[in-house]
Protein backbone atom coordinates (compact mmCIF):
# COMPACT_ATOMS: atom_id res chain seq x y z
CA UNK A 1 0.00 0.00 0.00
CA UNK A 2 2.78 2.39 0.92
CA UNK A 3 4.55 1.54 -2.33
CA UNK A 4 1.49 2.48 -4.42
CA UNK A 5 1.08 5.69 -2.41
CA UNK A 6 4.71 6.62 -3.07
CA UNK A 7 4.31 5.97 -6.79
CA UNK A 8 1.18 8.14 -6.88
CA UNK A 9 2.94 11.00 -5.09
CA UNK A 10 5.94 10.82 -7.43
CA UNK A 11 3.66 10.79 -10.48
CA UNK A 12 1.76 13.84 -9.27
CA UNK A 13 5.02 15.63 -8.55
CA UNK A 14 6.30 14.85 -12.03
CA UNK A 15 3.10 16.12 -13.66
CA UNK A 16 3.21 19.29 -11.55
CA UNK A 17 6.87 19.90 -12.44
CA UNK A 18 6.08 19.45 -16.12
CA UNK A 19 3.23 21.93 -15.87
CA UNK A 20 5.50 24.45 -14.15
CA UNK A 21 8.01 24.17 -17.00
CA UNK A 22 5.46 25.26 -19.57
CA UNK A 23 3.20 28.24 -20.13
CA UNK A 24 -0.29 28.93 -21.50
CA UNK A 25 -1.86 31.50 -23.81
CA UNK A 26 -5.48 32.56 -24.08
CA UNK A 27 -7.51 35.30 -25.70
CA UNK A 28 -10.73 36.24 -27.48
CA UNK A 29 -11.17 37.09 -31.17
CA UNK A 30 -13.69 39.61 -32.46
CA UNK A 31 -14.40 41.43 -35.69
CA UNK A 32 -12.78 44.85 -35.39
CA UNK A 33 -15.79 46.56 -36.99
CA UNK A 34 -18.97 44.92 -35.66
CA UNK A 35 -17.32 43.53 -32.47
CA UNK A 36 -18.89 40.08 -33.04
CA UNK A 37 -16.94 36.95 -31.99
CA UNK A 38 -14.92 35.19 -34.68
CA UNK A 39 -15.50 31.43 -34.53
CA UNK A 40 -13.34 28.69 -36.08
CA UNK A 41 -10.27 30.88 -36.57
CA UNK A 42 -7.00 28.91 -36.59
CA UNK A 43 -4.65 29.88 -33.75
CA UNK A 44 -1.10 28.51 -33.92
CA UNK A 45 2.06 28.91 -31.84
CA UNK A 46 5.31 28.56 -33.79
CA UNK A 47 8.85 27.98 -32.53
CA UNK A 48 11.04 30.78 -33.92
CA UNK A 49 14.40 29.25 -32.99
CA UNK A 50 14.87 27.59 -36.38
CA UNK A 51 14.31 28.61 -40.00
CA UNK A 52 11.57 26.00 -40.48
CA UNK A 53 9.27 27.68 -37.95
CA UNK A 54 8.17 24.45 -36.28
CA UNK A 55 4.58 24.26 -35.07
CA UNK A 56 4.28 23.84 -31.29
CA UNK A 57 0.50 23.81 -30.83
CA UNK A 58 -2.71 24.92 -32.48
CA UNK A 59 -6.42 25.24 -31.76
CA UNK A 60 -9.64 26.81 -33.03
CA UNK A 61 -11.58 29.66 -31.51
CA UNK A 62 -15.01 28.69 -30.13
CA UNK A 63 -18.39 30.33 -30.77
CA UNK A 64 -17.54 33.06 -28.25
CA UNK A 65 -14.27 33.70 -30.10
CA UNK A 66 -12.23 32.41 -27.16
CA UNK A 67 -9.14 30.21 -27.50
CA UNK A 68 -6.59 28.68 -25.15
CA UNK A 69 -3.27 26.93 -25.78
CA UNK A 70 -1.42 24.99 -23.08
CA UNK A 71 1.97 23.30 -22.65
CA UNK A 72 3.85 26.05 -24.48
CA UNK A 73 7.59 25.87 -23.68
CA UNK A 74 8.80 28.77 -21.59
CA UNK A 75 11.94 30.77 -22.23
CA UNK A 76 12.01 30.44 -26.03
CA UNK A 77 10.97 32.92 -28.76
CA UNK A 78 7.59 32.00 -30.24
CA UNK A 79 5.16 33.54 -32.69
CA UNK A 80 1.38 33.54 -32.34
CA UNK A 81 -0.26 33.36 -35.75
CA UNK A 82 -4.03 33.71 -36.20
CA UNK A 83 -5.72 33.24 -39.56
CA UNK A 84 -9.25 33.08 -40.87
CA UNK A 85 -10.85 33.51 -44.28
CA UNK A 86 -11.72 37.14 -45.08
CA UNK A 87 -9.49 38.49 -42.29
CA UNK A 88 -5.93 39.71 -42.30
CA UNK A 89 -3.55 37.41 -40.40
CA UNK A 90 -2.64 38.45 -36.86
CA UNK A 91 0.94 37.96 -35.67
CA UNK A 92 2.63 38.51 -32.34
CA UNK A 93 6.19 37.66 -31.28
CA UNK A 94 7.04 37.09 -27.63
CA UNK A 95 8.85 34.88 -25.11
CA UNK A 96 6.78 33.35 -22.33
CA UNK A 97 8.09 32.90 -18.82
CA UNK A 98 8.02 29.42 -17.36
CA UNK A 99 4.65 28.85 -15.69
CA UNK A 100 3.17 32.05 -17.13
CA UNK A 101 -0.55 32.23 -17.96
CA UNK A 102 -0.49 34.86 -20.72
CA UNK A 103 -3.85 36.52 -21.40
CA UNK A 104 -3.93 38.45 -24.69
CA UNK A 105 -7.35 39.84 -23.90
CA UNK A 106 -9.59 40.80 -26.82
CA UNK A 107 -8.02 40.79 -30.28
CA UNK A 108 -9.78 42.61 -33.09
CA UNK A 109 -9.27 41.02 -36.52
CA UNK A 110 -9.32 43.34 -39.53
CA UNK A 111 -11.23 42.27 -42.63
CA UNK A 112 -9.38 42.02 -45.93
CA UNK A 113 -10.03 44.82 -48.39
CA UNK A 114 -10.56 44.21 -52.11
CA UNK A 115 -7.80 46.64 -53.01
CA UNK A 116 -5.33 44.98 -50.65
CA UNK A 117 -1.96 44.06 -52.21
CA UNK A 118 -0.11 41.18 -50.57
CA UNK A 119 3.65 41.62 -50.70
CA UNK A 120 4.68 38.49 -48.83
CA UNK A 121 2.66 35.38 -48.14
CA UNK A 122 3.18 33.63 -44.80
CA UNK A 123 2.61 29.88 -44.74
CA UNK A 124 0.36 28.71 -41.93
CA UNK A 125 1.53 25.43 -40.34
CA UNK A 126 -2.04 24.22 -39.95
CA UNK A 127 -5.33 25.45 -41.40
CA UNK A 128 -8.82 24.19 -40.55
CA UNK A 129 -11.50 24.52 -43.21
CA UNK A 130 -14.82 23.15 -42.00
CA UNK A 131 -14.18 19.42 -41.46
CA UNK A 132 -10.73 19.38 -43.12
CA UNK A 133 -7.41 19.90 -41.33
CA UNK A 134 -4.50 20.89 -43.60
CA UNK A 135 -0.94 20.53 -42.32
CA UNK A 136 1.95 22.26 -44.09
CA UNK A 137 4.65 19.58 -44.29
CA UNK A 138 7.45 22.18 -44.32
CA UNK A 139 6.55 23.19 -40.76
CA UNK A 140 7.40 19.76 -39.33
CA UNK A 141 11.06 18.77 -39.26
CA UNK A 142 11.97 15.20 -40.14
CA UNK A 143 15.33 13.47 -40.42
CA UNK A 144 17.02 13.08 -43.86
CA UNK A 145 15.50 10.27 -45.96
CA UNK A 146 12.46 10.13 -43.67
CA UNK A 147 9.28 8.53 -45.03
CA UNK A 148 5.70 9.76 -44.77
CA UNK A 149 5.15 7.71 -41.61
CA UNK A 150 7.86 9.75 -39.85
CA UNK A 151 6.15 12.96 -40.96
CA UNK A 152 2.75 11.81 -39.70
CA UNK A 153 4.21 11.10 -36.26
CA UNK A 154 5.14 14.80 -36.02
CA UNK A 155 1.60 16.07 -36.68
CA UNK A 156 -0.48 17.08 -33.63
CA UNK A 157 -3.32 14.66 -32.99
CA UNK A 158 -1.92 11.97 -35.31
CA UNK A 159 -0.56 8.71 -33.90
CA UNK A 160 1.17 5.80 -35.68
CA UNK A 161 1.62 2.53 -33.80
CA UNK A 162 4.42 -0.02 -34.22
CA UNK A 163 2.46 -1.85 -36.93
CA UNK A 164 1.97 1.32 -38.98
CA UNK A 165 -1.72 1.75 -38.15
CA UNK A 166 -2.76 5.41 -38.06
CA UNK A 167 -5.28 7.23 -35.91
CA UNK A 168 -6.29 10.90 -35.90
CA UNK A 169 -7.86 12.22 -32.72
CA UNK A 170 -8.33 8.55 -31.67
CA UNK A 171 -10.20 7.78 -34.94
CA UNK A 172 -8.82 5.12 -37.28
CA UNK A 173 -7.54 6.20 -40.70
CA UNK A 174 -9.31 4.04 -43.29
CA UNK A 175 -7.63 5.38 -46.44
CA UNK A 176 -4.43 7.13 -47.48
CA UNK A 177 -4.76 9.00 -50.76
CA UNK A 178 -2.07 10.52 -52.93
CA UNK A 179 -3.30 13.67 -54.64
CA UNK A 180 -6.86 12.46 -54.17
CA UNK A 181 -6.33 8.93 -55.51
CA UNK A 182 -5.88 5.68 -53.65
CA UNK A 183 -2.29 4.43 -53.46
CA UNK A 184 -2.29 0.61 -53.12
CA UNK A 185 -5.77 0.46 -51.51
CA UNK A 186 -5.17 -3.06 -50.16
CA UNK A 187 -2.58 -1.71 -47.69
CA UNK A 188 -2.43 1.99 -46.79
CA UNK A 189 0.96 1.44 -45.14
CA UNK A 190 2.66 1.04 -48.54
CA UNK A 191 2.31 4.78 -49.04
CA UNK A 192 3.29 5.83 -45.53
CA UNK A 193 6.27 3.47 -45.26
CA UNK A 194 7.73 3.97 -48.76
CA UNK A 195 7.07 7.50 -49.99
CA UNK A 196 9.67 10.07 -48.93
CA UNK A 197 8.46 12.83 -46.62
CA UNK A 198 10.32 15.38 -48.77
CA UNK A 199 7.81 14.76 -51.59
CA UNK A 200 4.87 16.04 -49.55
CA UNK A 201 3.63 19.62 -49.66
CA UNK A 202 0.42 19.30 -47.64
CA UNK A 203 -1.27 16.63 -45.51
CA UNK A 204 -5.06 16.85 -45.56
CA UNK A 205 -7.18 15.06 -42.94
CA UNK A 206 -10.96 14.79 -43.21
CA UNK A 207 -13.90 12.52 -42.34
CA UNK A 208 -14.44 9.34 -44.36
CA UNK A 209 -18.02 9.90 -45.51
CA UNK A 210 -17.68 8.55 -49.04
CA UNK A 211 -20.37 5.96 -48.27
CA UNK A 212 -22.35 8.30 -46.02
CA UNK A 213 -23.19 11.40 -48.11
CA UNK A 214 -26.21 12.24 -45.94
CA UNK A 215 -24.20 12.17 -42.70
CA UNK A 216 -26.38 9.45 -41.15
CA UNK A 217 -23.50 7.79 -39.30
CA UNK A 218 -22.65 9.42 -35.93
CA UNK A 219 -19.44 11.42 -36.01
CA UNK A 220 -17.93 9.27 -33.26
CA UNK A 221 -18.10 6.24 -35.61
CA UNK A 222 -16.71 7.91 -38.71
CA UNK A 223 -13.12 7.15 -39.68
CA UNK A 224 -10.58 9.50 -41.20
CA UNK A 225 -8.96 9.86 -44.62
CA UNK A 226 -5.46 11.24 -45.13
CA UNK A 227 -4.72 12.84 -48.49
CA UNK A 228 -1.05 13.49 -49.29
CA UNK A 229 -0.60 16.45 -51.62
CA UNK A 230 2.62 16.27 -53.60
CA UNK A 231 4.85 19.22 -54.36
CA UNK A 232 4.27 20.58 -57.87
CA UNK A 233 7.70 19.45 -59.10
CA UNK A 234 6.88 15.84 -58.20
CA UNK A 235 3.61 15.65 -60.13
CA UNK A 236 5.47 14.95 -63.37
CA UNK A 237 8.27 12.62 -62.41
CA UNK A 238 9.56 9.09 -62.06
CA UNK A 239 11.24 8.07 -58.84
CA UNK A 240 11.73 5.07 -56.60
CA UNK A 241 13.99 3.15 -54.26
CA UNK A 242 15.67 -0.23 -53.98
CA UNK A 243 17.14 -1.88 -50.91
CA UNK A 244 18.96 -5.08 -49.99
CA UNK A 245 20.51 -6.61 -46.90
CA UNK A 246 22.04 -9.86 -45.75
CA UNK A 247 22.63 -11.52 -42.40
CA UNK A 248 23.63 -14.80 -40.84
CA UNK A 249 22.07 -18.21 -41.50
CA UNK A 250 21.30 -17.34 -45.13
CA UNK A 251 18.91 -14.57 -44.08
CA UNK A 252 18.48 -11.77 -46.60
CA UNK A 253 16.04 -9.10 -47.67
CA UNK A 254 15.59 -7.32 -50.97
CA UNK A 255 12.90 -5.03 -52.34
CA UNK A 256 12.04 -1.94 -54.29
CA UNK A 257 9.35 0.52 -55.27
CA UNK A 258 9.04 2.52 -58.51
CA UNK A 259 6.59 5.37 -59.07
CA UNK A 260 5.57 7.37 -62.12
CA UNK A 261 3.30 10.36 -61.61
CA UNK A 262 1.55 12.61 -64.11
CA UNK A 263 -0.78 15.57 -63.69
CA UNK A 264 -3.74 13.44 -64.72
UniProtKB/TrEMBL annotation:
Q: Which InterPro entries match?
A: CarboxyPept-like_regulatory, TonB-dep_rcpt-like
Keywords, ordered alphabetically: Cell outer membrane, Membrane, Signal, Transmembrane, Transmembrane beta strand, Transport
- Tell me yes or no: is tRNA processing among this UniProt entry's keywords: no
Q: What is its main location?
A: membrane
Membrane topology recorded in Swiss-Prot or TrEMBL: Multi-pass membrane protein
Q: Which domain of life is it from?
A: Bacteria
Which stretch is the leader sequence?
A: 1-23
Question: What compartments host this protein?
Answer: Cell outer membrane
The answer to whether the entry has keyword RNA-binding is no
- Family, similarity comment: Belongs to the TonB-dependent receptor family.
Q: What is this protein called?
A: Carboxypeptidase-like regulatory domain-containing protein
Q: Which organism is it from?
A: Mucilaginibacter jinjuensis
**Source organism phylogeny:** Bacteria, Pseudomonadati, Bacteroidota, Sphingobacteriia, Sphingobacteriales
